[in-house]
Design goal:
Structural class: alpha/beta
Number of helices: 8
Low-confidence stretches: none
Oligomer: single chain
Helix content: 25-40%
Number of strands: 11
């Protein structure tokens, strides 16, 4: 990492206490980007279909990540924030500007993920707990994956335009497919909404030097992948790899760079 008094860029990376978000924060910091790491500690109920490591990761803070980045010469600040709070985006941008500088990279990685279904099934194919679609399951996921992502983009755009910015990057993460996301129906629907917001941003903000793209990772081992999941990936033709968080972060890091100037309005499906 490079020790920069004035960073070349400043990023907000949401959901960065573990997994892909943490890997993105590390990669950005390595090339001199100052990073505001946002996260929310989630304490999931025990689930026999989900490894304990994943529950531990989701309940973790981000202090260790920030210490790691700062000890290597980068600049990082962590803020715990509930993105379902409609005022959170403004507070996050305010903190980033005060602590690090104007934000010109936004990575919408956080999710309100739960598994829900229209069927009476209580478990999915891997033994993970399912719940019926309810007002609660809808709100939890749309509040973070759709509403918060939209409000963060809006805050990014407003501040960028007010300061006459000429360079910006918006990157979101998505999942699901053409026929939705069976067994994770609200999650898939909320991600589809975020895709739409991001594609709109790619058009509306193009004249301001901002690119906006979505990344659709393959199955990524952030602690939840079991042997059964790996075998399922091997048996399918539409899936190729079980990726590491750093492999996905490498693509996001590229999209957040000068080299990706001509890449906008895309949903990049990684396999």
């Amino acid at each position: 990492m490079t020790d920069l008094a004035q960073p070349s860029h400043v990023a907000i990376v949401t959901g960065a206490n573990h997994g892909i978000g943490a890997a993105v924060a590390r990669r950005l910091a390595r090339r001199g980007v100052a990073v505001l790491v946002t996260y929310l500690r989630v304490h999931d109920a025990p689930d026999p279909g989900v490894p304990e490591a994943y529950r531990h990761n989701r309940a973790a803070g981000a202090d260790d990540l920030v210490r790691e980045i700062n000890s290597l010469g980068g600049r990082a600040v962590a803020v715990e924030a509930d993105l379902s709070d409609r005022d959170a985006p403004g507070r996050l941008f305010e903190t980033a500007e005060q602590e690090l500088g104007p934000v010109d990279i936004l990575v919408n990685n956080a999710t309100g993920w739960v598994q829900d279904t229209f069927t009476p099934a209580e478990q999915d194919a891997f033994g993970r707990a399912l719940r019926p679609v309810t007002h609660e399951s809808f709100e939890r996921q749309f509040a973070v994956d759709a509403m918060a992502a939209a409000l963060l983009i809006a805050e990014f755009a407003r501040r960028h335009i007010e300061r006459h910015g000429t360079w910006g990057r918006i990157i979101g993460l998505t999942s699901g497919g053409a026929q939705g996301f069976p067994s994770e129906v609200s999650y898939g629907a909320a991600k589809a909404a975020q895709e739409n917001y991001t594609m709109s941003a790619s058009v509306e903000l193009a004249d301001y030097g901002v690119t906006a793209n979505m990344v659709h990772p393959p199955v990524t081992d952030t602690g939840w992948v079991t042997d059964e999941v790996r075998e399922a990936v091997r048996s399918r033709t539409d899936l190729v790899h079980v990726a590491t968080p750093d492999q996905v972060a490498e693509v996001i890091d590229f999209l957040a760079s000068d080299a990706a100037e001509l890449v906008t309005g895309n949903i990049l499906r990684l396999r």
